[in-house]
Design a protein that fits this description.
With 265 residues, the chain is mostly beta strands. The chain has 2 helices and 19 strands. 5% of the residues lie in helices and 43% in strands.
């Protein structure tokens, strides 16, 4: 059966100096909590291969077959990652976890586990909390969703060029930011500005739109809370989220560090 419900995957790409040698695939049985499963296993040295998160149609919220995503990315091996809302009637199927690809955060969801690979092939699998804090003309603002449908109860959401929709959802008050300055404060769905992003404030968060003025500077940064902040602060890196099934102990200390905002997301 040809499944067409994957919206992202983790792919293995050959490094510039490597060939397909050293990559193997096969089946084996593994036992977890007394139950035995037959699984497919791909083995590769991360000294010779790179890990990347591929998005269906190159955007957040789209769908595409696993084979088509792998083909577009030029992958030698691929596996689906993260959960997403596969049962919504909407054409947009939003994910449930953090997504970071090519060194850019493209989706925020502070739940579950984040698996990350840095540029050297090192990895971590941890609870990671990302908090988006912004400033415009001396006034603070925040958003807790990125490239995600706002829902009906209200939301503070940042939309970037990775959003699958042609326009932002037609809800609440919206702020267009281009080249680090507020271009307009308006309503209705908006097309993504060149070299910028759109902020959507709806429901109980709509008051935040009143802090923005056309022409005022606007910036944001991401605050990281994690067990190993030094690792998660590395860029470029690639991540995908999934429920914590391999690590059961929750970390007891939290460390904080800020990422500088990247203009033009």
């Amino acid at each position: 059966m040809h499944i067409r419900c994957w919206f992202l995957l983790v792919v293995l790409l050959p490094c510039l100096t490597a060939c397909a040698a050293g990559l193997s695939a096969g089946g084996q049985k593994v036992t977890v909590d007394g139950a035995t499963f037959t699984v497919k296993v791909v083995r590769a040295s991360l000294r010779d291969y790179q890990v990347k998160v591929g998005l269906a149609q190159g955007r957040v919220g789209g769908t595409q077959s696993l084979a088509d995503i792998a083909r577009r990315e030029g992958a030698l091996a691929a596996i689906n990652g993260s959960f997403f809302n596969a049962y919504t009637k909407s054409a947009i199927k939003p994910p449930y976890h953090h997504l970071i690809t090519g060194g850019e955060v493209v989706h925020l969801a502070n739940n579950g586990t984040t698996l990350g690979f840095d540029a050297d092939g090192n990895y971590r699998m941890d609870k990671v909390c990302l908090k988006l804090q912004g400033n415009t003309g001396g006034s603070a603002w925040y958003a807790y969703l990125m490239n995600h449908p706002p829902g009906t109860a209200g939301a503070a959401t940042l939309y970037t060029r990775y959003w699958i929709g042609e326009r932002t959802p037609a809800q609440g008050r919206q702020v267009l930011v281009q080249d680090g300055k507020v271009k307009a404060v308006t309503g209705g769905g908006q097309a993504m500005p060149d070299k910028g992003y759109v902020l959507l404030f709806s429901g109980g968060e709509e008051y935040l739109a009143g802090r923005f003025r056309a022409g005022a500077p606007c910036s944001f940064q991401l605050e990281i809370e994690a067990e190993d902040v030094a690792f998660w602060s590395k860029l470029p890196m690639n991540h995908f989220g999934s429920p914590m099934s391999m690590k059961t102990s929750y970390f007891h200390r939290r460390y904080r560090r800020r990422w500088a905002a990247v203009r033009g997301w």
